[in-house]
Amino acid sequence: MPELQNDPLLPGYSFNAHLVAGLTPIEALGPLDFFIDRPLGMKGYILNLTVRGEGVINNQGKNYVCRPGDMLLFPPGEVHHYGRAPDSKEWYHQWVYFRPRAYWQEWLNWEPIFAHTGFYRPDDAHQEGFSQLFQQIIDAGQAEGRYAELLAINLLEQLLLRRMEVLNASLNPPLDNRVRDACQYISDHLADGHFDIASVAQHVCLSPSRLSHLFRQQLGVSVLSWREDQRISQAKLLLSTTRMPIASVGRNVGFEDQLYFSRVFKKCTGASPSEFRAGCE
């Protein structure tokens, strides 16, 4: 049996882990100055951040030159064909290989530069924050100890959420404080079996009709639809990160009847709670 490669920078490494992270320092004519070529991609995702020099990404006859600050996301099965840009003397890029938690899916739908390769470049005000988070992921991923990988995954989740937060802030004006307070109140009372808009409206000193109008105006959905989304999102989080019984998960988000909870959950996600949990394992 051939010996497995234990250096993730070199061909043949198995990447048989939930998270592996590092820095690839490519310099012209150096030992790492070759093109990565994985026509079938990988089983997990790779997130790539250029920190020095330039790299070139090729895919089906198209190419993109990535520069410091550019982040690229390669989903499972996406073509990997990249290396140092010929006109650049170096390409230093940090990377994270990971298998995502089930509830991350929405955060991994990045704007593609071509095919399914995602692209994101933080603006100048946020560049440093993302750079620091990326380095923390690498530091945690390479550390020893039983919690090192979990900490790295937690930091990666922070990075993905930061990106969503920045994108959301750029696309939407700040929420009316009363709508924000209403959202917080609803989130704090997801387990309440009985829910009515009047109690939320009273909490934020608005009439039910005015609250409903502001909700649709600022969030694009009704109060009830927003609450339903939060209940299902919280249920998905509990199913994927705890061993809480399904009936308890349902009660935790306001469903006293387990069968009704399962029916609503499947309608919203396409899978029953037990099927969803099995897919996270």
From TrEMBL:
<keyword id="KW-0238">DNA-binding</keyword>
<dbReference type="Pfam" id="PF02311">
    <property type="entry name" value="AraC_binding"/>
</dbReference>
<dbReference type="InterPro" id="IPR018060">
    <property type="entry name" value="HTH_AraC"/>
</dbReference>
<dbReference type="GO" id="GO:0043565">
    <property type="term" value="F:sequence-specific DNA binding"/>
</dbReference>
<dbReference type="InterPro" id="IPR020449">
    <property type="entry name" value="Tscrpt_reg_AraC-type_HTH"/>
</dbReference>
<comment type="subunit">
    <text>Homodimer.</text>
</comment>
<keyword id="KW-0678">Repressor</keyword>
<dbReference type="Pfam" id="PF12833">
    <property type="entry name" value="HTH_18"/>
</dbReference>
<dbReference type="GO" id="GO:0019568">
    <property type="term" value="P:arabinose catabolic process"/>
</dbReference>
<protein>
    <recommendedName>
        <fullName>Arabinose operon regulatory protein</fullName>
    </recommendedName>
</protein>
<dbReference type="InterPro" id="IPR009057">
    <property type="entry name" value="Homeodomain-like_sf"/>
</dbReference>
<dbReference type="InterPro" id="IPR037923">
    <property type="entry name" value="HTH-like"/>
</dbReference>
<keyword id="KW-0119">Carbohydrate metabolism</keyword>
<feature type="domain" description="HTH araC/xylS-type">
    <location>
        <begin position="180"/>
        <end position="279"/>
    </location>
</feature>
<keyword id="KW-0804">Transcription</keyword>
<dbReference type="InterPro" id="IPR018062">
    <property type="entry name" value="HTH_AraC-typ_CS"/>
</dbReference>
<dbReference type="GO" id="GO:0005737">
    <property type="term" value="C:cytoplasm"/>
</dbReference>
<dbReference type="InterPro" id="IPR003313">
    <property type="entry name" value="AraC-bd"/>
</dbReference>
<keyword id="KW-0010">Activator</keyword>
<keyword id="KW-0054">Arabinose catabolism</keyword>
<keyword id="KW-0805">Transcription regulation</keyword>
<dbReference type="GO" id="GO:0003700">
    <property type="term" value="F:DNA-binding transcription factor activity"/>
</dbReference>
<keyword id="KW-0963">Cytoplasm</keyword>
